[in-house]
Design brief:
Rossmann fold, two-stranded antiparallel ribbon, globular
Length: 225
């Protein structure tokens, strides 16, 4: 059986951090559609016109673009035992597509939903920084680097994402409410496992501990059903 995990939540709920920890723990790849898109832009690889502007504005890029990225990535050999999706699916149409892709292989996604208050999100995202070299994530409030604004691992000056300004954050939250939140209902009503985790309190490590506990409890209750 394949371990198909969807880490779901609003922008700034900590999907990237939790997906990375989960990936290290389970030994399956972490696939972030946002990171793949940013990587392609950095490398100057071709993307359909308008994608960069859409991302900068905090809107969602067309389903077809991300569906292709995900389907290509899921067919790589390292994803054969499973994968952790971060930032996908984000629309009902993407969720249906993934559901079909997994269904054709006799599989179904397990959804980890990171719950968090919007006020915490705005503070968190405004303090978010990333190393442009090794991609390590920091937060000036909850996870600061040892030396002001420099990466602990390679000393590079940390950068903010262009879409982490407050106006764009609000647009991204709107896009989440409008298009992504219904995806949770899709999973809740089609019999998928949806595991809820309080992602608003504590350090990333303590949230991860809660996440693992919630997954174990869900596993136990599944075995008793
Ligand atoms: P993220 O790093 O997940 O916050 O994604 C950054 C941006 O990439 C989003 O604001 C969207 O513009 C785009 N993006 C990433 N994943 C998706 C997706 N599944 N569907 C549509 N747009 C996406």
């Amino acid at each position: 059986m394949m371990n198909a995990i969807v880490v779901f939540g609003a922008p700034g709920s900590g999907k990237g951090t939790q997906a990375k920890l989960l990936s290290e723990c389970l030994g399956i790849p972490h696939i972030s559609t946002g990171e793949v898109l940013r990587e392609r832009i950095r490398k100057g690889e071709s993307l359909p016109s308008g994608v960069l502007a859409t991302m900068k504005a905090g809107d969602l890029v067309p389903d077809q673009v991300v569906n292709e990225i995900v389907e290509q990535r899921l067919c790589q050999p390292d994803a054969a035992q499973g994968f952790i999706l971060d930032g996908y699916p984000r629309t009902l149409s993407q969720a249906e597509r993934l559901h079909q892709w997994l269904g054709a292989r006799g599989e179904r996604a397990v959804v980890v939903f990171l719950e968090i208050d919007y006020n915490i999100i705005i503070t968190r995202l405004a303090g978010r920084r990333q190393c442009p070299q090794c991609r390590t994530l920091y937060n000036l409030i909850s996870q600061p680097p040892r030396v002001d604004e420099l990466c602990d691992l390679d000393g590079e000056r940390l950068v903010s994402r262009v879409d982490d300004s407050e106006a764009v954050i609000r647009e991204r939250l709107d896009a989440y409410e409008r298009e992504t939140r219904p995806v949770l209902e899709f999973y809740r009503t089609n019999g998928s496992r949806v595991i809820e985790v309080d992602a608003g309190q504590g350090t990333p490590e303590s949230i991860f501990e809660r996440l693992c506990q919630a997954m174990e409890e869900d596993d136990r209750s599944k075995n008793c059903r």
